[in-house]
Design goal:
flat
């Protein structure tokens, strides 16, 4: 099955697409929901492993914190 990504121009357009998908009986999820599910899955797996991979956790946290931020420009 293929996946599409739609970038609505505003909240009204987002709601339109969500309602359309719901009426068509199409499954849908947001990227935020997907990321939350994957994080929860990783956390549950870690509970049973007995080990914590600090580098992996720090990389994930840094990626989350740095999303949608303007690139750094050294003005000096």
């Amino acid at each position: 099955m293929e996946t599409i990504i739609i970038h609505p121009k505003d909240k009204a357009e987002l709601n339109f697409f969500l309602e359309l998908a719901q009426r068509l009986g199409t499954k849908f999820t947001s990227i935020d929901e997907l990321e939350d599910k994957e994080l929860l899955k990783a956390m549950k797996e870690n509970l049973t492993s007995g080990e914590t991979d600090k580098e992996s956790i720090m990389k994930t946290l840094n990626n989350i914190l740095n999303e949608n931020q303007a690139p750094y420009k050294n003005e000096g």
